[in-house]
């Protein structure tokens, strides 16, 4: 510092000026005040800097908090979208659905099958084949209950009616031979497939695989004409044939058509079984294995079924007693006559076939064969044999029942 009086340079710690003797205390005091002021100013500046820094940190923290909140909202929104996508993905994925036939039949009837488009359906039920499916590719059906020949051809068709209204039609994607050759009506199956439509718009189950729970051998429904023309194609197979059952004395039991042009022999049928069936009418369905014996086709009977529709099927157009009297018939002509069976028509006539309208009758000669075993008094009767004219009218020498 300098002396304020003479200007001499002085030490900062000097109390007096060595040149003029002037005291330096006031200068020191001023210097100290200046230093203190500078110190205070510096301290205030530091505090401002610190406060500014703290404010900046605080502002940054607020910004971070606001940013973190936005991130949370964004992540929550993205999470919800992802959850919706996952749920939608699993909801839209094809499902595997196990159903009973009746349930799917109701779905199809209510036109709700499209809800199951793309889903794999496992359908449980029983196979129903109409006649010979080798010629009818779309007539495969699954029913809630097995349709056996008894149910199909029996007189009580309530169960069949219920099952036929709950059928599901199905088609095979691959070769149908597994079905045609190996599986028959009544086989218990589980079908694996998807819903689809035929070219005609029919809703069906398109099957890709079949699980066989219980197998029933196929039954081939054929008529007598087909059997006689190409029976060799069905040898050893289970066949179902409709016809008129007759018993030719000394020969055996046969199934024939209306005019006895086509016949097939029946085996495995007792006399009592034949008579019990015959009393319900000669029209029957016969099911069994077709064989060939001595160049003759034979059905080894497994089942005989009848219904109301068959009773008059083969008798309505047969000659009656009245027809015989109205026409000229040569003696010894083999004829089949339909009428009413009567016992004790007169004192000398024990058995006869009677015309219900004209009351004309033809005497029956049966050579000690018990006709009562096959016919009931006052009931319909169909009988065959050689006819002869006698002094009392016509007599029929009975040779066949039916």
What do these coordinates show?
The protein is of the alpha+beta class and 402 residues long. It has 9 helices and 17 strands. It has helices at 25-92, 101-109, 149-153, 158-164, 177-182, 224-230, 271-278, 308-311, 321-326; strands at 96-100, 120-129, 140-143, 168-172, 188-197, 203-214, 219-221, 238-248, 252-256, 263-267, 283-293, 296-305, 333-343, 351-354, 361-365, 380-390, 393-401. The strands form 2 sheets. Strands 7, 8, 9, 10, 11, 12, 13, 14, 15, 16 and 17 form an 11-stranded mixed beta sheet that branches. The chain has a 5-stranded mixed beta barrel with strand order 2-3-4-6-5. α2 links the parallel β1 (96-100) and β2. The chain is rod-shaped and about 200 Å long. Residues 131-135 have low confidence and may be disordered.
List keywords for this structure.
402 residues, alpha+beta, 9 helices, 17 strands, five-stranded mixed beta barrel, eleven-stranded mixed sheet
Order of helices and strands: HEHEEHHEHEEEHEEEHEEHHEEEEE
Poorly predicted ranges (pLDDT <50, ≥5 residues)?
131-135
Shape descriptor reads rod-shaped
What percent strand?
Answer: 25-35%
End-to-end separation in angstroms reads: 161 Å
Q: pLDDT average, as an integer?
A: 78
Q: Oligomeric status of the shown chains?
A: single chain
Q: Give me the Rg, rounded.
A: 54 Å
**Main sheet record:** 11 strands, mixed
SSE class: alpha+beta
The total of helices stands at 9
Give the tally of β-strands.
Answer: 17
Give the fraction of residues assigned to helices.
25-40%
